[in-house]
Write a structure and sequence with these properties.
- The N and C termini lie far apart (61 Å).
- This protein folds into 2 domains: 59 residues; 296 residues, Phosphatidylinositol (PI) phosphodiesterase (TIM Barrel), CATH 3.20.20.
- It is globular and about 85 Å long.
- Strands 1, 2, 3, 4, 7, 8, 9, 10 and 11 form a 9-stranded mixed sheet that branches. The chain has a two-stranded antiparallel ribbon with strand order 5-6.
- Helix 12 links the parallel strand 7 and strand 8.
- By secondary structure, it is an alpha/beta fold.
- The relative contact order is 0.08.
- Helix content is 42%, strand content 15%.
- It has 16 helices and 11 strands.
- InterPro entries: HAT_RTT109-like (IPR051236), PLC-like_Pdiesterase_TIM-brl (IPR017946).
- GO terms for molecular function: phosphoric diester hydrolase activity.
- Keywords: Membrane, Transmembrane, Transmembrane helix.
- Belongs to the AIM6 family.
- One of its GO terms (biological process) is lipid metabolic process.
């Protein structure tokens, strides 16, 4: 009798001392909701039609063999068509679904890491377990929480496109997308100052400045500023706005003889002029994004190079323009050798190689090209889908 009582008690739900699941439970629930997918009514109708046709094929009344064959071909066609449409639809909706990781950081984006509601808790609570990986958050400003979602995913490089207008740098992909509240200062510079302030209490700053990652405090974060407007005005505005970071000693710089690594490395890309960068001969804390596919220059002699660590940090190229089309989802041997040549040429100059514009769809092809680039020692993996960067083994490569 006692054994029966024990078995009955095991069937009951254990009594928990608290019903408060905490923030982790809420995050997991929102993540599950984001991934949830219900079969549309149209696909349920197709399934019912398929079952009906399958019954008709083997029904005793279907004695005529050609008719059975026709029914079988019809049903098979419907099956493959249904699978194809379902696969495309499910993949599309999952791709379009809001990244729950991005949404989770929305409150920090709205309030700021050092707000009255969350004083100095953002990096302490949520950066402690982040493992930085060599990925670049391409067009980072398009995310729900620019900068924060990228850092939370481990990206060591973020990108902002800027237009110079009325002595201000506005962030946007096109001129029509510019907004008064979306500036380089408000979206990136001020927030980086807040984060690095929390990582570097005043009495530690002069001795050993720490970066944004707790697990890799000496890992420098790269801020790529893609110039959409050329000229001295864009450059001068960027130089001026970096002053709060510069005066705290947080910018990687060329001191005239060698390069000094600091928590933040600023790179000018796009319409940035090489001569404008190189004109700052003695002290430089804004570096160039060199042309990966065109690094060779008549000035080079094997030991000295036009593009080097004194004036450049990244070396980037459009994947399609530099490598060519991927035929039937495969990178051929000649293209692999070209990738190898580009990466080795950049590394010879002390630069970090990167391809942008890599295929994003289908995901299998994207992951295959990512894996190839990792094997060929790419310096930064250009990422549009942060969820794709967080999954698999991308966090384990050194």
């Amino acid at each position: 009798m006692s054994h029966m009582i024990e078995l009955e008690s095991l069937r009951e739900e254990p009594i928990s001392p608290t019903l408060d699941y905490g923030e982790d439970h809420g995050l997991l629930v929102s993540y599950s909701d984001a991934r949830a997918y219900k079969t549309p009514a149209c696909f349920r109708g197709i399934w019912e039609k398929l079952k009906h046709e399958a019954k008709q094929i083997f029904h005793p009344s279907a004695a005529v063999f050609p008719k059975r064959i026709a029914n079988l071909l019809y049903a098979t066609t419907l099956i493959f068509f249904g699978i194809f449409i379902s696969t495309i639809t499910i993949a599309f909706f999952r791709w379009k679904a809001t990244d729950p990781f991005d949404t989770f950081f929305a409150r920090f984006w709205d309030e700021g890491p050092s707000s009255a509601h969350n004083p100095a808790k953002y990096p302490i609570e949520f950066f402690g377990n982040v493992l930085p990986i060599p990925c670049h958050s391409h067009n980072d400003y398009w995310r729900r929480t620019p900068l924060f979602a990228a850092l939370g995913s481990g990206c060591i490089s973020v990108e902002a496109d800027v237009f110079y207008r009325n002595n201000e740098l506005y962030v946007g992909h096109t001129e029509s997308a510019l907004h008064p509240g979306r500036t380089l200062k408000s979206m990136y510079i001020n927030r980086l100052v807040d984060l690095l302030d929390e990582m570097n209490p005043t009495h530690w700053r002069a001795a050993d400045p720490k970066g944004v990652f707790y697990n890799a405090p000496h890992q420098s974060l790269t801020l790529v500023v893609d110039f959409k407007t050329a000229g001295n005005e864009t450059w001068s505005a960027l130089y001026e706005q970096l002053q709060p970071l510069r005066e705290r000693g947080w910018l990687t710089n060329w001191n005239g003889t060698h390069r000094v690594e600091r928590p933040l490395t600023v790179v000018a890309s796009g319409a940035a002029d090489f001569d404008l960068v190189a004109s700052h001969n003695q002290v430089r804390d804004i570096f160039l994004d060199a042309p990966l596919a065109e690094l060779d220059h008549p000035f080079d002699d094997g030991t000295r190079f036009r593009y080097n660590v004194s004036n450049s940090h990244l070396a980037s190229a459009n994947f399609h323009d530099a490598i060519g089309s991927v035929f039937r989802g495969k990178v051929n041997d000649e293209q692999v050798l070209l990738i190898r040549k580009h990466t080795q040429s950049a590394q010879q100059r002390g630069l970090v190689p990167r391809y942008w514009g890599t295929p994003r769809w289908p995901r299998g092809l994207r992951d295959e090209i990512w894996a190839l680039l990792v094997r060929e020692n790419i310096g930064l993996l250009n990422v549009d889908d942060l969820r794709g960067a967080r999954k698999g083994n991308w966090g384990s490569w050194s």
